[in-house]
Design a protein that fits this description.
mainly alpha; two-stranded antiparallel sheet; 11 helices; 5% strand; transmembrane helix; TM_pro_TauE-like
Length: 305
């Protein structure tokens, strides 16, 4: 069934969009990430303009993240206090990111910046995650995070320390706030919740228990993506509501199944699978930037009146 997207200005198969939303929603619940790292490139691959894909994807992330958080909340796997501190930084980063997005859009460089950002961030993070996960699996250990993070570094000397009883942490509030800030910038410019970066940062920098990371990450993603969607719609007019609704319906359903499946995976196995998918997306985008396109030019004829 074909449906017309007014902002993207093209017709798409509605069933395909629902399936994409469901698949990404499943990943959201499975790995505790918003899934935008995969959805935005997929939308670009089927012809949606990059700027519209980024702006619209934020709406889908809100729905998928809410669905995932509710499932984690029932299992008491959300640290609301730490998530709130991350949200403060996330709100600031989102505002800055939307402003930069609008500036790049006016300059005509936003499509290239989006693609290069994906290749750089996704390629680097996925390679590091995959290396660590494979090492942990080969050695047959659980997640060796907390023992490593107990070694004192300069991060432990930062001011404004706070206690987070749910995560059993006593750290500087600047750390989760900065992680949230980076996530806010990413959701505005790349249309992603930043979970692929937030999840490893919360594990390796903050030292959070793995069981709490997914739910807390999604809790913060809800508000930053909601703010990004509003600012993109008002400031840059890049939100296609028809596309967003289709993605939202599929995402909410898929997230519930993903959360159940995630309970059956060990931490290092989940991270390895996530890293492989992120790396595959980065490679596909890199190839598209290098390979010679079939149509080098696009000609638009003037409308005669």
């Amino acid at each position: 069934m074909q449906i017309y997207l007014p902002i993207a200005e093209l017709s798409v198969n509605a069933l395909l969009i629902l399936m994409l939303g469901g698949g990404v929603g499943f990943l959201s619940g499975l790995f505790g990430v918003g899934g935008g790292f995969l959805m935005t490139p997929l939308l670009i691959f089927i012809g949606v303009p990059p700027a519209v894909a980024v702006g619209t994807q934020a709406n889908q992330l809100v729905g998928a993240s809410v669905s995932g958080v509710l499932a984690h909340w029932r299992r008491n796997n959300v640290d609301v206090k730490l998530g709130g501190v991350m949200l403060i930084g996330g709100a600031i980063g989102t505002g800055l990111g939307v402003w930069l997005f609008g500036l790049l859009q006016k300059l005509g460089h936003i499509d290239l910046v989006i693609s290069l950002s994906y290749v750089l961030f996704l390629g680097t993070v996925s390679s590091l995650m995959l290396t660590e996960s494979v090492r942990a699996i080969v050695k047959g250990r659980g997640v060796p995070v907390r023992s490593k993070l107990h070694h004192h570094t300069w991060l432990h000397g930062l001011p404004f320390k706070m206690r987070f009883p749910r995560s059993r942490l006593y750290i500087s509030a600047l750390l989760p706030a900065f992680i949230g800030f980076v996530g806010g910038v990413l959701v505005a410019i790349m249309g992603i919740g930043g979970g692929f970066l937030l999840v490893p940062a919360m594990i390796y920098i903050l030292g959070m228990p793995t069981a709490l990371v997914a739910g807390t990450s999604l809790f913060q993603i809800i508000f930053t993506t909601g703010l990004a969607a509003f600012l993109q719609a008002v400031g840059n007019q890049t939100v296609d509501i028809v596309l967003a609704l289709l993605l939202l319906v599929g995402g909410v359903i898929g997230a519930q199944f993903g959360t159940r499946a995630g309970a059956k995976l060990r931490g290092e196995q989940a991270r390895a699978l996530l890293a492989l998918m992120v790396l595959a997306v980065a490679v596909k985008l890199a190839v598209d930037l290098i390979v010679r396109p079939e149509d080098l030019f696009s000609i638009t004829l003037p409308v005669m009146t």
